Description:
mainly beta, Lipoprotein
Amino acid sequence: MFFNKKLLKYAALSAVLLSSCNNKVEDELQTITSDMLPTLTLSEMDFLRGEASFEMEVSNEYADLVSVADVKVTSNGADLDIEVSQESDKWQISFDSKQLTDGIHPIKLSASLSSDLTLSQSEITQDFDVEVDNYLPTIFYEAGYIESLNSNRTVTYFSNIHNGEMREVEQTYSNYQLNFMIVDETGTPLTSYNDAKTSNDSIFFLIPAEIRGRNFYVKEAYSYEFDEVSTELFDNSVTTYKRYDRNIVFNSITSNLDEPLIHTKDEDSSSGTDEDVITKQVVVGVSEEVEAITNYHYSYYNNSETETIDGVVYYTLHLKESNKTESLYSNYPNSAYFYSVYTYAQDDPSEAKGVNIATDFINDGDTILITMDDLVSPKTYSVHYKDNNTYTRLNTMIGDGEYQLMYNNAFQREEGEEEDIYYTFDFKNLNSDDFKYIEEKVNRFGDHGFSIVVHHLDDINDKSNSYLNADNLNYSDNGTTASLGVPSFTDVSVDMTMIQTYSKESEGTTSYDYDVIFKTNSNTNRTLSILDYSDEELSDLQGGLFNEFSSLPVEYNYVSYVAQNGRLDDGHFWMTDYYYKNSNARLRGPYSIREMAKQFFYEEDLKQALRQGYKINKN
């Protein structure tokens, strides 16, 4: 009996103690503290397109005390319409991504909480950014754009027949037609063709949600005719030439780049006429003593006048005020306006004396004088040729940063079999910091490869042996398809082009140019591959002008890189090559690297000569 009473006493005491403990725990758990709240983990998202979804996983150690009751998604304070489903600790959240515009958006995910106890906070949130990518960049062809491509101009070139004479050439572009569609990166059409003449509203193409890629093409099929009538000014003889062009162009675009593809009537127009371009007037005075013993070169924009007063010959030059700023990134940079004089030294050019004036840097209305004291000995720069595949041209770059002008007329070149020597003179009106010597290193590689790379020289006697060759072209051809990849030797953005040319024999003075062209630009870092150009609509397009492609053989693939830094920047380059499908095919001359380089620079300089008036005098 005593044992039972004692046991009952202990049992009663234990019950009291246990009751006291339970009351204490309940008192402590009246509030869910922050460290007891669930945590959220979201699935990774590359970008959102169409109906988007992501998964939210809830990790909850105290699931019996607190739980997620609902989910809300907002962006910039606005609620998004979402659909939510839950399975165990995983929540699936779906919504139409077109509720947001394309681009990067801040997203806030809010999970409201539920508990029988007091919550330290009613919801938990997670902030993150998402990229929405539903539309291609806007495509727009202005009304009248195609008609504006039909043009006529008359230009003057050096004669191909009569040495030293000129010829007047009338060039006419006519019958332009252009249709375009959107295709994916494999060339599969996503739209029908649009006529650029009549489709003049901005096109906002909604990318199908099932397409997860971001690389597309605007595929253009365009045709035109080119006529040329050349009149020799020496004897008024006339020759004619006609060419039919048929081109299918794949212009690469990337969906996440917000750069509209706009084609307007004035995008290919000239920079202006004599009446609508602001000009300035500068005067160079040359003493008659200097005038009597020197050659002179000078350039101007619109006319020049000459008068002699008190033993000084004054040359009044009209120049373009905008010359310094309008073509920093052009493939053909503006040449500096100049006035240069130098004395005769036929036996030894190093004995010559001369001076250069950069007339762009003379203020409007100012006059600068050249006297005998200004004539100085030349600086020299020699180039030794180890083989027939390399060529160097020395130039001056005037200015930097906001403007770059090329000045090559300052150099006199003595050409030898193994070495060329350049002679140049200082600038009277420039400091040494205002200009920099640059060399353009030209290389011929293989049968048809051609490259140019620009190097800046800290001193005129510095030399670089850096050339670009075939190994620098990231080109491959497995016999079925060919591709051109981004170059690995540079960090500079590059425009890439690959052209598949189809062969059709000329008929007398009429020729045919049939090309399939693939183009990317510095904003689309991708590999170009030859794609099947055919589609169901092409055969009926433009009255069947493209039907002949299927019956013509491929003659060659042409590839090119063009760096998108300034044309005269250190490290600027471009390179091209031809890959012939027929081993017997050969590029029509010239084949000597000097001939090739001379032809290239001749054409480049001629473009400048046509844009700038110039005069060369040889006493």
